[in-house]
Specification:
The protein is an alpha+beta fold. About 15% of the residues lie in helices and about 35% in strands. The protein has a 6-stranded mixed sheet. A 5-stranded mixed sheet has the order 6-18-17-13-14, with no helix packed on it. A hairpin with a 2-residue loop joins strand 13 and strand 14. The chain binds manganese (II) ion.
Length: about 230
Amino acid sequence: MSFVIPPPPTVSLPVTGSTERFPVGRIFCVGRNYAEHAREMGHDPDKEPPFFFMKSADTITSGPTIAYPPQTSDLHFEAELVVGLKSGGTMIKAEDALQHVYGYAVGLDMTRRDLQAQMKKMGRPWEVGKSFEQSAPCSPMVPAVKTGHPSRGAIWLDVDGKRRQNADLADMIWDVSHQIAFLSALFELKPGDLIMTGTPAGVGAVARGERMHAHIDGVGDLEITVV
Ligand code: MN
């Protein structure tokens, strides 16, 4: 096959303990999946359930640096557990969902919070706040056959050594199984799809020169410096 212009490269993540890589399809992101974070953003988690938005696959980066993006003065970090699917389908039951998971990674849902707030106010889509270049730094993927399916354990983020986010995966409103079930009722999930499973409370701004360190027990670490 030949193309009229060079085809875009396949986006992929390294796999821990392997020379093979995980190819990335779509990136589904859940919003307001930790009650305390929903409240810090001004919402009532009992009245407004989580919801989904997307980032483009080419927002993925392994770092170790990201460039401060244009058109914002309020770049925020959101540490998140990332799920990689090895298979998919529609109408997947929660009790069957984890068999579709290849592995897990530590990710950052970087957000131009000022632009996102403007879009929210005007009832417009969020892409300008969420889906810009290098907005999804991600660690290597750990296969579930090695790490299991983490449903509890610490998730935290430090900026320059100071703890900013600190929670437990068990605090999620929708666990990974129910996120997969929910998404598969709306979309045909496919191998390579990623799910960013939401961030706990403590989100905040990061400046040029600062170093973020995100950690999830049993999954790994991600260290990214903003330049
Ligand atoms: Mn997020």
